[in-house]
Amino acid sequence: MKPSTILRKLNAQEIQEQLLPAEQLNRRAQQYSQRAQLAVILVATILVATLLAGVLTHLFILPFGSPFLERVEVLPSSANICTDPCRAVLVESIPEGMTYEDNSTINPSTFQTWQNLIRDARSSLDIASFYWTLTNDDTHTHEATAEQGEQILAELMQLPQRGVSMRIAVSTPKSKQRLDDLQALEQSGAVVRKVNMGRLTRGVLHTKFWIVDKTHIYLGSANMDWRSLTQVKELGAAVYNCSCLAQDLGKMFEAYWFLGLPDASIPSPWPANYSTTFNKETPLEVKLNGTDASVYLSSAPPALCAEGRTEDLHSLLSIIDDASEFVHIAVMSYLPTMEFSHPGRYWSAIDNQLRKAAYERRVHIRLLIGCWEHSKAAMFPFLKSLAALNDNDTHYSVEVRLFMVPVDEAQAKIPYARVNHNKYMVTDKVAYIGTSNWSGDYFLRTAGSALVVSQSEANANVEPTLQEQLLAVFKRDWNSKYSRDINTLGLRENICNIH
């Protein structure tokens, strides 16, 4: 049929339709409308079936067999309740030769705690650490008290033979640091990754924590150093049977582990599987030692905080700001500066917050600062400036004391020992146990972490809260013979008992 013939037939049909009565046209329009509605329903049915098939495939097939999708477990805010029977214990290292009164607070030792964690490990042990020197080969002192560190190293090396996987994330060692411990651990089957925080943030990996079987943790001031067991005063916390918290700390370890890859860079933002819902605003709700507790972990520096993670500095400042009655602080070093910057820079974030609390809310501030031969001279004028706020007329209450670990002639020969290395804060509401000294670099450039616990008052039939335990430690040290008011002391050389 010719095109012209087709065109003529189409034109004739159109003309005929135009000449149809209105009633017939209405019936034909209704038929077209019904057909269109049926088509829409059919398309919608197909789309719903396709979506349902996709959901079922994702739920029942992909999680078990897909090599392409990584499962991401991000708990909703309604899941911030942990039913584990969590138990927290303060852990201390008291240097050899230090003695307290007979009725003083005594906590389990770091050595005993580490040893128990190693012996109880069944499947995995992850350790984040600054450096490793568990034998005294590096000091050449042949010190008998290094035996505890050597025993810890020996037991760690046996873990892979027991089928326990061990991963170690450590700050990239300096050129002069000995690597004997790390090499021995690698030979035993441990996997070690060195994290170059100097390249990433111009800092170091200063964190000190353990995760055992994704169920138990240790976090505190003690380095993987034999001196941290017998020659340096340390404080940390062990939390047992608390998989919710251990797995959240595991996300921080995984961040270090990722950054230990060659040429790794810090993601921005971090992938979703590093994120958390446990933070200052929505803490983990848990029974801790039989008492209701709100718990979260903070991290530094900000670049290492995935979505939901509270920055350590923000955590610290908010704890001071929330205090109503007192803020008691025990740290080795306190400097309102960027301590390792060249040229030096003033950094007043924490200092301002303490002065604000004392002035605006009349909060009682106490600082107990470590004092040893390596204390920086610049620290003392700043501390005396804080102490000068203490005034009977204005009722500002700021006290500063220096804590000096005793040292004899033999102990003086042990390098980098005999100091109060604690890094914690306790208020009328919160227990804060960290891994950082208090100067700007540690919160802005250096990798650190902290455990933050808020508890209601304990019942008479259960153990003291972590806040009560920490307050007891602070009072013991504050009132001990090793504590001296900074205003009663003179030159730094005399203050710090330099041998």
Low-confidence stretches: 1-33, 38-44, 46-78
Q: Count the DSSP helices.
A: 15
Report helical residue fraction.
25-40%
Terminal Cα separation, in Å? 116 Å
Write down the Rg. Answer: 32 Å
**Biggest sheet overview:** 17 strands, mixed
Structural class: alpha/beta
The geometry reads as globular
Give the strand content. 15-25%
Q: Tally of extended strands?
A: 21
Mean pLDDT across all amino acids: 86
Enzyme class: hydrolase
Membrane topology: Single-pass type II membrane protein
Family: Belongs to the phospholipase D family.
Catalytic activity: Exonucleolytic cleavage in the 5'- to 3'-direction to yield nucleoside 3'-phosphates
Give a description of the structure.
The protein is α/β, with parallel strands linked by helices. It is built from 15 helices and 21 strands. The protein has helices spanning 3-19, 22-60, 62-65, 110-120, 147-158, 180-188, 197-201, 227-230, 243-259, 312-322, 349-360, 379-387, 440-444, 466-478, 492-495, and strands at 81-93, 124-129, 132-133, 165-171, 191-195, 209-212, 216-220, 224-225, 234-240, 284-288, 291-300, 310-311, 326-331, 337-338, 345-346, 364-370, 398-403, 423-427, 430-434, 448-455, 483-485. The chain has a 17-stranded mixed beta sheet that branches. Strands 3-8 form a two-stranded parallel ribbon. α4 (110-120) packs parallel to α5, α5 runs parallel beside α6 and α10 (312-322) packs parallel to α11. The longest helix has 39 residues, at 22-60. The radius of gyration is 32 Å and the shape is globular. The termini are far apart. Residues 1-33, 38-44 and 46-78 have low confidence and may be disordered. It is an enzyme of class 3 (hydrolase). Its EC number is 3.1.16.1. Its main location: membrane. It is a single-pass type II membrane protein.
